[in-house]
UniProtKB/TrEMBL annotation:
Keywords: Acyltransferase, Transferase
KW Nucleotide-binding (keyword) present: no
Organism expressing this protein natively: Actinomycetospora flava
Protein name (Swiss-Prot/TrEMBL): GNAT family acetyltransferase
UniProt xrefs under NCBIfam families: PRK03624.1
Pfam families for this protein: Acetyltransf_1 (PF00583)
Residues annotated as domain N-acetyltransferase: 1-136
Enzyme kind, highest EC tier: transferase
Length: 136
């Protein structure tokens, strides 16, 4: 079952992101999660099986494109279509707002790139530039 992440599951989601290798010391996943749940243009979708949080995806749009973040499936539930279903639900959520979706995959995450390519995502001829605004 894919639902908006219930607030009482926030700690479970952050634990899943740590376990899935998605967190970095310079980011604050709790704050990322709060912003996504509180903002008008974003949410976090979750797959819940019984008592267990099995997967998540953060989804949001900037008025032009949609973005996916924090896609994670618990280790013991992978390769059963959970990730594909989460991306499908995120795309459906976005399609009501914007015509395009994209995401960033870290250079060292060939597995995630392989997963997204299976789902029909293609590499874009674009260099992503960024800088921090919080002085960290
Ligand atoms: C990437 C991830 C979300 C995939 O979830 P999953 O539930 O195992 O994926 P699914 O079972 O829905 O797989 C969907 C398709 O992708 C393929 N696939 C899954 N993992 C793959 C991989 N590592 N490499 C290549 N293809 C892969 C599956 O074979 C399947 O193909 P098919 O439906 O055509 O047979 C999961 O491995 C994960 O949580 N990884 C760690 C976190 C991460 O890297 N997130 C992405 C950050 S950008």
């Amino acid at each position: 079952m894919i639902v908006p992440l219930p607030r009482e599951r926030c700690a479970d989601a952050v634990a899943l992101w740590h376990a899935a290798g998605l967190t970095r010391p310079w980011n604050d996943p709790d704050a990322d999660l709060r912003r996504a749940l509180d903002g008008p243009s974003s949410t976090v979708l979750a797959t819940i099986s019984g008592e267990h949080l099995v997967g998540t995806v953060m989804v949001g749009h900037d008025g032009h494109r949609g973005w996916l973040y924090y896609l994670a499936v618990a280790d013991d539930h992978r390769r059963r279509g959970v990730g594909r279903a989460l991306v499908g639900a995120a795309e459906e959520w976005l399609a009501a707002h914007v015509p395009k979706v994209q995401l960033m995959v870290r250079d060292d995450n060939a597995a995630a790139a392989g997963f997204y390519e299976r789902l029909g995502y293609a590499r874009q001829d674009t260099v992503v530039l960024g800088r921090r605004l919080d002085g960290r």
